[in-house]
Amino acid sequence: MLYDTEKVQVIHILLNPGEKLRRHITKTDVLFYVLEGEGIVEIGEEKKTVAKDTLIESPSGIPHCWYNESTGILRFLVMKIPRPTEATQLL
Fold first, then answer.
1. Are 88 and 23 in contact (CB under 8 A)?
2. How far is residue 53's CA from residue 51's CA, in Å, rounded to a whole number?
3. Residue 63, preceding bond cis, omega within 30 degrees?
4. Alpha-carbon gap, residue 54 to 36, rounded angstroms
């Protein structure tokens, strides 16, 4: 956890080649900002390849996940605004 207040939560994620972030639902809006590498983000039924310096929005209540199918590391920030009051629901 990089930053955690009553209003905002910021998390740093690192995925090695071949790793994925399990599909889940967050009960708050989420912004993702890619710091390094390239990966695939899936939000709802839409999949998109994203790279460094890309900002992605994931609305509250929509399932989302990440995949690193590249040969390098993938690093991104997860910004939950407002800070969630309920636990993330893993699918």
1. no
2. 6
3. no
4. 10
Structural domain count, the chain:
1
In a domain, 20, yes or no: yes
Domain that holds residue 65: 3-85
Q: What is the pLDDT of residues 29-42, one digit of tens each?
A: 999 999 999 999 99
Residue range 45-64, pLDDT digits in tens? 999 999 999 999 999 999 99
Here the tokens at position 58 are 């994931």
Secondary-structure percent of the chain, ordered helix, strand, coil, rounded to 5: 0, 60, 40
Does residue 13 belong to any structural domain of this protein? yes
Rounded to whole angstroms, what are the CA distances from 30 to 18, 53, 71, 82? Answer: 23, 16, 26, 9
